[in-house]
Design brief:
- The complex is a heterodimer of chains A (596) and B (370).
- Chain A is mainly α.
- Chain A folds into 2 domains: 232 residues, Orthogonal Bundle (MetI-like fold); 237 residues, MetI-like (MetI-like fold, Orthogonal Bundle), CATH 1.10.3720.10.
- Helix content of chain A is 70%, strand content 0%.
- In chain A, helix 21 packs antiparallel against helix 22.
- Chain A starts with a helix and ends in a 9-residue tail after the last helix.
- Chain B contains 8 helices and 22 strands.
- Chain B is globular, with a radius of gyration of 25 Å.
- Chain B folds into 2 domains: 236 residues, 3-Layer(aba) Sandwich (Rossmann fold), CATH 3.40.50.300; 124 residues, OB fold (Dihydrolipoamide Acetyltransferase, E2P), CATH 2.40.50.140.
- Chain B has 370 residues and is an alpha+beta fold.
- In chain B, helix 2 packs across helix 3, helix 2 runs parallel beside helix 4 and helix 3 crosses helix 4.
- Chain B starts with a strand and ends with a strand.
- Classes of the chains: A mainly alpha (596), B alpha+beta (370).
- At the A-B interface, helix 10 and helix 11 of A face helix 1, strand 7 and helix 2 of B.
């Protein structure tokens, strides 16, 4: 057989075609842009010509590297301090997320606490809502007048002025992000606790171990992988988080790498920003490498699941009732109450004055007056808000369609060719965008698509670039559920049809997709919801006409138009929760069942 | 000494009883099997004795000490009952090495280090796993994991050992080997074994007594051969023995003292009881004939057709058609037959059984057939 014949045979199989196409596409869309951003850290950008004397735009320079990494005090405030803050926040976030989520998982799966179903449903809401929801709620409640502006509800109600460390910066950022990732820890750790073979604990009990010893020596080591993966996810996500530190850190100039990156990329030093993006990517990749090193394959944790499902539940005794009620109230406070504050804040005219006479619908339905927010009309009459909502929904739908469909095809092809070089490479490539911090990825696309490349025009500012970045960024979720679905199904089901001479298209649409409908649908749902609430991925790439709801929220907040920000936030949360609810009811898929 | 006594033990799940009014007396040093189809409550019974499950009512005592009593409100936790438990899936801790698994219980009992090592060495030698001490369970084969689980259970020297289908995850060959070893182990450790299984062969070959349970109700509690030869009802008769006993639904035509004439469609046969024969003419009964009692004999009066044969070398299982009834027989030796061949039959032995024709199918008599 000669080469042409072999190639012909190779490409006659649909999964080979898919793999090759994905390989080329992903290399172009994720791998090559990495080179571009590295170049950018060595390049003089147009806005920097004044600063770096005697150079022209496009010249090679070490200026950025020197200034950011080795310029004493200057580097300290530009890079090292934000870097330290980033690490401090990420660690605190993980600590809070894992202890709260893990503790909650233990309460739900191992004790006789009341209202388990309700508690569980409430607990995952902060994870479905965008992360900054709690941050804005925190501001609504605890902001003070020490840094200018009006005090929040808490101060108004109690007369106590919150200190700065409590209202802004490290503390609230860690708490808010910790609470956001706690449900993830709960889902992962709770899943293991629930499915863990109860015999493992019973065996220890029969061998005279006390309850504490069992938790220490059996249960904790068993959930260690879940704790570790929560840690890695929460760490890398909070490292690349932008919205929360932006909202809660800005008033006291508490900078982290992402906010610093945004400042420099939007300002006069894009070179600094690209360098920071590169650093974020390096940290993200090294976390994943550590992950692979740490997880020890010798102690395979997948054991045959036991048949005894009725674990003896820990009796909370006298604590049972108080704790149950406390949790319900506490969870309502961090899920429902924030939404109420958004509603309230969006109705009051003069901020900080909660008298009934101060309530007005002007920010919702007003026509826009010169004395309020530069004549911006209320959001229900506001063309730009509708435009943003429209953009958000369309962008989410389009990204979900592309990511979800590519995920199904990719998952199918990867699973079918499992073990081959091409399949493994494509698998890693689809996973790669997961490692790229959102804002860094935004920076990459900004750097690549600011200028035309051959046949591809300069896409910066267009809707297409948002679709492109959204699709690539969420591809890992979709591919993962696609691969899982295919591996679960096994090859024989398809082979049974193949032998009867059923064509590929029909096999996919009549057999494979209908059987694994739910898994595939969650491959569409995850990108949709994630896209709906995404801010840091798009913030660097939008133009006024392509603004989405989240970026509008950020801009309103930056301008200090509190009421608009709250109203839009409410709009986003409602759209997200509603979408999740409807899709969950229709298909059984839900975002809290997936990864990320 | 650890004699285990169950009195009226009941376990309810919602409205259905998993175990219903169970009375059981497990003597010291015995090897008892709890046998029954899956979902019959045998595992629940075992877990209740071990303390892993709480009975709804009743009383359990181990070695004279009441460990559970619903009336007196006693419930001794499992770790205080001093029992060993071997789980079906072994439940080895995947994050500990073989050695760590084995010594875990001893460490909890605060044994001195040198004693622990000594004990572990003895056990690993006995179970032939010495060279695997530093491995993790995932790196062992099923049979090796099984041995580690046994060593772990035996480490603390429990006087009673509970086993929940410990061989069901092994392949046939290994299962055979482990059966032999378990029986040796029972002798060497001099302790009481309670063993749960759904495999009647395992129960027959291993135990000193079989406790047969169906839908939470005790059916029969007797030594294996008694259960085989004198089953309490059709369920027991059918469950024990391979190939299965022949159960023929027949009608009593007439009864004359200890002999009854039974109708097999248009033919009749005589059943002569060795003891009482509490049946009357016209009654529906079930005739139970063990396959080894059906013999091919030229002088036999019964004429049957060969339906199919399953020769295995040592014996051949032959399926026959007798007047519209299906009949299984075992012919010993390396023989085979032609399908559809006509053969003459005789039914030997005076251990053929007559059961009541109702759902309960109580055993009524034992005797010979002509």
């Amino acid at each position: 057989m000669n080469v042409t014949q072999r190639l012909k045979l190779f490409f006659r199989k649909p999964h080979n075609v898919i793999l090759v196409v994905l390989f080329v596409l992903l290399t172009v869309l994720t791998f090559l842009p990495m080179l571009s951003i590295i170049m950018d850290t060595f390049t003089v950008h147009t806005s920097e010509v004044m600063r770096i004397r005697g150079t022209h735009a496009g010249d090679f320079t070490l200026y950025h590297w020197r200034k950011v990494l080795a310029d004493g005090e200057n580097s300290m405030s530009i890079f090292y301090k934000p870097l330290l803050n980033t690490f401090a926040i990420s660690f605190a976030t993980c600590a809070i997320g894992i202890s709260v989520g893990g503790g909650f998982a233990w309460l739900i799966t191992r004790t006789n606490i009341k209202f388990k179903a309700l508690l569980s449903a409430l607990f995952v809401i902060p994870y479905i809502m965008p992360a900054w929801t709690l941050a804005l709620a925190w501001l609504n409640f605890f902001r003070n007048s020490l840094v200018g502006g009006v005090p929040g509800l808490f101060t108004v109600l109690t007369g106590i002025t919150t200190p700065n460390w409590f209202a802004y910066g490290f503390f609230p950022i860690s708490v808010v992000q910790g609470l956001h990732y706690a449900p993830f820890a709960y889902i992962l750790i709770g899943g293991i606790l629930k499915n863990m073979d109860a015999n493992l604990e019973e065996a220890a009990q029969l061998l005279h171990a006390t309850r504490l010893q069992i938790i220490q020596k059996i249960t904790l080591p068993m959930v260690k992988p879940a704790i570790l993966s929560t840690f890695l996810l929460a760490f890398s996500s909070s490292m690349s988080a932008f919205a929360v530190p932006a909202f809660l850190g800005m008033p006291v100039r508490y900078q982290v790498l992402t906010t610093q990156m945004y400042r420099t990329l939007q300002g006069l030093n894009p070179g600094y920003g690209y360098l920071m993006a590169l650093m974020l990517i390096l940290i993200g990749v090294s976390i994943m490498l550590i992950n692979q090193k740490v997880l020890d394959n010798r102690k395979a944790y997948t054991t045959i699941t036991g048949k005894s499902s009725n674990v003896s539940l820990f009796n909370l005794r006298g604590l049972k009732n108080p704790l149950s009620y406390f949790l319900v109230v506490g969870l309502l406070c961090i899920t429902i109450v924030p939404l109420i504050t958004f509603a309230i804040e969006s109705f009051i005219v003069e901020p900080g004055n909660y008298a009934l006479s101060n309530f007005s619908t002007v920010f919702w339905t007003g026509e826009g007056a010169v004395d309020i927010a530069n004549g911006e009309p209320g959001i229900l009459r506001n063309r730009s808000v509708f435009n943003g909502l429209y953009n958000s929904v369309v962008l989410s739908l389009v990204c979900a369609f592309f990511a979800g469909s590519l995920g199904i095809l990719g998952g199918y092809a990867i699973a079918r060719k499992k073990g081959t070089w091409l399949s493994e490479t494509v698998n890693h490539l689809t996973f790669f965008p997961y490692l790229l911090p959102s804002m860094a990825m935004g920076a990459i696309y900004l750097s690549v698509f600011a200028v035309p490349h051959g046949p591809i025009p300069a896409l910066y500012g267009t809707f297409a670039v948002l679709v492109l970045i959204g699709t690539v960024k969420y591809l890992p979720f979709a591919t993962k559920s696609g691969i899982n679905a295919m591996l679960q199904l096994g090859g024989q089901i398809e082979e049974a049809a193949l032998i009867m001479g059923v064509g590929w298209w029909k096999r996919m649409t009549r057999i494979i997709i209908p059987i694994q409908k739910t898994s595939f649908l969650s491959g569409y749902l995850l990108p949709y919801i994630s896209c709906m609430r995404e801010l840091s991925l798009f913030i660097l790439l939008i133009s006024p006409s392509t603004a989405v709801l989240t970026t509008m929220l950020f801009q309103y907040n930056e301008k200090g138009w509190n009421q608009y920000a709250n109203a839009i936030n409410l709009l986003i949360v409602v759209v997200v929760l509603l979408s999740n609810y409807i899709i969950n009811k229709l298909t059984g898929a839900s975002i809290d069942k997936g990864i990320g | 000494m650890p004699e285990i006594i169950l009195k009226n033990v009941t376990k309810m799940y919602g409205k259905s009883a998993a175990v219903n009014q169970l009375n059981l007396n497990i003597p010291d040093h015995s090897f008892i099997t709890l046998l029954g189809p899956s979902g019959c409550g045998k595992t629940t019974t075992l877990r209740m004795i071990a303390g892993l499950e709480t009975p709804t009512s009743g009383e359990i005592s181990i070695g004279g000490q009441v460990v559970f009593s619903s009336e007196q409100g006693i419930d001794v936790p499992p770790e205080k009952r001093n029992v060993g438990f071997l789980f079906q899936n072994y439940a080895l801790w995947p994050h500990m090495t073989v050695l760590e698994n084995i010594t875990f219980g001893l460490e909890n009992l605060k044994w001195p280090k040198d004693k622990i090592k000594e004990r572990a060495d003895v056990l690993m030698k006995m179970l032939k796993i010495t060279e695997y001490g530093t491995r993790y369970p995932a790196e062992l084969s099923g049979g090796q994991q099984q041995r580690v689980a046994i060593a772990r259970t035996l480490a603390t020297g429990p006087k009673t050992l509970f086993m929940d289908e410990p061989l069901s995850n092994l392949d046939a060959k290994l299962r055979m080997e482990m059966r032999t070893e378990l029986k040796r182990l029972h002798m060497e450790t001099d302790s009481t074994f309670v063993y749960v299984t759904h495999d009647q062969l395992e129960a027959m070959t291993l135990s000193t007594r079989i406790c047969l349970i169906k839908e939470g109700l005790l059916q029969q509690y007797a030594p294996p051969l008694t259960v085989y030869n004198e089953p309490a009802n059709t369920f027991v008769a059918d469950f024990i023995g391979s190939p299965n006993i022949n159960l023929l639904h027949v009608k009593v035509q007439s009864v004359n003292d200890k002999t009854a004439t039974l109708q097999l469609h248009d033919k009749t046969i005589q059943f002569t009881a060795t003891g009482e024969l509490p049946i009357a003419a016209g009654q529906e009964v079930v005739l139970g004939i063990r396959p080894e009692n059906v013999v091919l004999d030229q002088s036999g009066e019964l004429l049957a057709q060969i339906y199919s044969t399953l020769p295995s070398g040592m014996e051949t299982v032959v399926r026959l058609k007798l007047n519209g009834f299906n009949l299984t027989e075992v012919v010993f030796g390396s023989v085979d037959f032609k399908v559809n061949e006509e053969v003459h039959l005789k039914i030997k032995s005076d251990k053929n059984l007559l059961f009541a024709g109702d759902a309960e199918g109580k055993c009524l008599a034992q005797g010979s057939i002509y």
